[in-house]
Amino acid sequence: MSAMAPAVLLLFALASGLLALALWLFASARRRKAQQAIESTLQRSLEIRREWQAAAPPGLPGMPAAPTLAARPQGRSEMLRRLKDRLRWKAWGMAPRTLGLLAVAALALALGAALQGGALAGALTLALCLPLGSFGIWLRLSRRRARILGQLPGFLDNLVRLLSIGNSLPAAFQFASANVPQPLGGALQQASAGLNVSPDLGQAMAQLERTWGLAEFGLLAAVFRMSTRYGGRADMVLERVSSYIRDRQSAERELHAMSAEVRMSAWILALLPVVVGAMIMLLNEGYFLRMWHDSAGRQMVFMAAGLQVCGSLLLYRLARLR
């Protein structure tokens, strides 16, 4: 028990640190939201002032120069923002409090495993929770993207109908995005809120492309930029984009059905060694510990783990039909 005390204390310290990190992320998210609201209002006021100065006569006295926004220092908040953008934080649809609770639950599970089976069992449990959590987030993000792609043609059809009866493009976009279900509705509401700051609809859709990582949003951004800059029949282009998205989804569903056997085989081959190893560790712990305490056995375990990771990546590349 005395040998387990440092490991348990270390796990407790790690749990406390992750809990503090979750609380800090929640507070920073709220602070960041308030800061974005202030910056949006300030940016809009500066744009209005620049437009007024550009429209004013050149020799008008008493016209002060328009102030410029100072660049924010590259501190921890900026690094955190870039990390969230790279991880597509806004597309997860999960509050920081939920992520904090999940982290605390994983640490509590690791602590329980450490108290029951030792520090090695706790470390292995924690190491298993990390990839499982990452896989769960990736699966949730993939499903939300698929739902958005399924809802996008209907939204474009509604947008085309509003354009055909004489509405402008920004007004039709705001009307069409009012009653769209989630998750596409939340993304479009973000773009509509961006229109209150800047009337550039293409820029708002480009921001959605960066947030969600969907090329369809980038295509819509290009269509909106061309329509705003050069004019033309945006309703006809959007109707063709809607038909293209439907045809692509139909082809992807057909390919998904044809490749079901390949993907199922890849899942079985990837998970079978992991499941068998976990059952051996749970049912016959002494056998695994005897091999773990031997130097040659430990090298075999590390080699098997490396081969398992390489094999899983190769199976993923074989089953990925994009």
UniProtKB/TrEMBL annotation:
Pfam families: T2SSF. The keyword Nucleotidyltransferase does not apply. Its main location: membrane. It is a multi-pass membrane protein. It comes from the Bacteria. Residues 155-281 form the Type II secretion system protein GspF domain. It is found in: Cell membrane. The chain crosses the membrane at residues 94-114, 120-139, 266-288, 300-319. Keywords: Cell membrane, Membrane, Transmembrane, Transmembrane helix. This is Type II secretion system F family protein. It comes from Comamonas endophytica.
